Amino acid sequence: MQQLFTTLLTGLTLGMVYAAFALALVLIWRATRIVNFAQAPMAMLTTYVALVLIEAGYSYWLGFAAALLSGLVLGALVERFVIRYVDPRSEINPVILTLGLFIVLHALAALVFGARYRSFPAPFGLRGFQVGDTTIALTGFGIFTILSVLAVVVLLVLLFRYTDVGLKMRASAFNQEVARLLGVRVGRMLTLGWALAAVVGSLSGLLIAGGGLVHPSFMDGVVVYGFVAAVLGGLDSPVGAVAGGLILGLSLSLVSGYVGSQLVSLAALAILMAVLLVRPGGLFARVRERRV
Q: 135 has which bridge partners?
């Protein structure tokens, strides 16, 4: 029973990490209808911004804020000077471009920050809480991770459901011409969507790096699991992204704890295939196909 409890708590924290990255993918999909595979190296770069400041002697929270701000700026610049010039009539070209950005940003990080492993601090404890003679596998940083992701999903739901800006962003993503006729400044909305997605991606990078090692490829594995979590919950649903991350994190933690860690990637692939076969739109998708 103790092993099961520990495995579930580990999966909960891991699932929230996947959910944070999935939220970034969902946000940019809802705002621009693009799957951004460059989200991982963008988050990696902003994490290095925080690390440089922390290593220079500044506080963790100053580095944290600087990483989020740099993510906001980086996302806006990528949309304004790269994505915007791709042929909008093609759905595949922007995706291919984000894969190219993935490679370019990796190389840039290695040149600027180096390829060696560097320790990244955590603002809270990394040891589980002690209850009597039992150590609970939930750390202070794990609680911070859970609360951060829940706060982000609440803010995103409020943004898209109850604000004019959220409605304009969704209108710009679905039909730019109609949105322009209604007076929406589509270019600004698309830039804002990329900027906000990069902020959420930066948060995921900070949560993943906390208490671990940072190097130019430290986010590469997360992009796979984050994408699976986003598809599992539904690319249009922030709540679904969190649920998908939790389902994936708990499932993979159980597989790792009771079957074998070498089967984790295979289990993630099996979950993705099952969802695509049974419910292609995701478990929390609300859009249904129209029949004529």
A: 130
Query: Alpha-carbon distance 127 to 4, whole Å?
Result: 18
CA-to-CA dists, residue 87 to 91, 97, 100, 215, angstroms: 9, 11, 16, 34
- Which of 31-40, 46-55, 149-158, 224-233 tops mean pLDDT? 46-55
* Dihedral angle computed from the Cα positions of residues 65, 71, 74 and 80, in that order, rounded to the nearest 10 degrees: -120
Residue 4 burial (C-beta neighbours within 10 Å; 0-12, 13-18, 19+): exposed
As a residue count, the chain comes to: 292
Highest mean pLDDT among 64-78, 88-102, 186-200: 64-78
Across 39-48, average pLDDT: 94
Determine which helix (DSSP H) or strand (DSSP E) holds 151, and give its type and residue range. helix 140-162
Measure the CA–CA gap between 144 and 124, rounded to whole angstroms.
8
Say how far apart CA 20 and CA 10 lie, in whole Å: 16
Which residues, 6 or more positions from 277, have their beta carbon under 8 angstroms from its beta carbon? none
Predicted confidence (pLDDT) at residue 280 exceeds the cutoff of 60: yes
- Closest CA relative to residue 135, chosen from 9, 43, 41, 51: 9
What type of residue sits at position 210? G
Q: Contact 222/252 with Cβ under 8 angstroms?
A: no
**198 is written with which tokens?**
């990069």
- CA 17, CA 205: separation in Å to the nearest integer? 9
Token pair for 31: 């705002």
DSSP three-state, residue 118: strand
Q: Which residue has the higher pLDDT, 140 or 58?
A: 58
